[in-house]
Amino acid sequence: MAQISNTSNSLYNFIVRDGNGIKGLVDSGLLEVPKIYIQPINERINKLETKPCDMPPIDLSKLNGKEHEKVVNEIVRAAETLGFFQVVNHCVPLELLESVKDSAHAFFNMPPEKKVVYRQNVSTSLKMRYQTTFAPEIENVLEWKDYINMVYSSDEDALQYWPNECKDVALEYLKLSSKIVKVILEILIGKLGVELDDSKIESLIGLKMVNMNYYPACPNPELTVGVGRHSDAGTITVLLQDGIGGLYVKAEDENDVGKVEWLEIPPIPGALVINVGDALEILSNGKYKSSEHRVMTTSNQSRVSVPLFTLPKFTEKIGPLPELVKKDGLAGYREVLWKDYMDNFYGVAHEGKKTLNFAKINSS
Ligand code: OGA
Ligand code: NI
What is the model's pTM? Predict the structure, then answer.
């Protein structure tokens, strides 16, 4: 199939080049899904083949009490199995979470001409980017999603370059959620029997970015995806989702090894979703799982979600921790310069965990 960006497609130009986004198209009174959004059958999500993930959320406040070890074990077990879990009592005020979601709506509800400046203004583009679908230049089918990507370098830069509609709350969310990431990462690394000093831990999460995802209502959700199958590249992701639902994670059926199922991470008021990314899977020599996940669109409401991605600094070399390789007797991944990993990650359209092959040893 021809790449969409190679065709002189006026629809593509309206959505991607001119910055109207898929929201702009939906707002123009769309009645059916355009061809460039229709997924091949094997990529569509059949709700009948999914079920809700029934893992209860983990209460982080209990880390400070007599149940500390039990909570630690819950976190470790979740990271080793599904690679996803939810947390409550995480110290990010619930009012802030509401404001973050409201500000995402405020940004995307602006007219296209206000949003498009964040596509054109090259000087801000490294800190703030407005985009639609993951990688329009290389995809065969587009994802039903608009988003902004806000990269953190300093408070001053954030307040200068991020959009007024959301910068204050996004920065506060980034700071408080980063504390959760640090607590969880220290637990997960500690349970591997490895000691890393604070500066090493910091460099594993030294690159932080907040995205705001906007999935407009879709006339026929069965045909599209909000985000296609992918794993997150970084170390740990914290995700705030609203009440609409639609996030699915790939899992193996516990009772039927080899059988794949897609579990929905149900919206829980006040909870945050935590997931392991590729960097942590590599560091842990495969012990912690960076799971494949995707998002289904809905027909009557627009959905927002706000991930905080924490990633290693580009200059870090990421490979399985040497103590683990010694213990395991085998490295499942090679050491990669993190910049190279990310260049590869952004250079290919979403296709499950394929991006991990860049570091995997003996991957076919
Ligand atoms: C992502 C992602 C899930 C969601 O942005 O990487 O997986 O629920 N988002 O929006
Ligand atoms: Ni993701």
Answer: 0.95
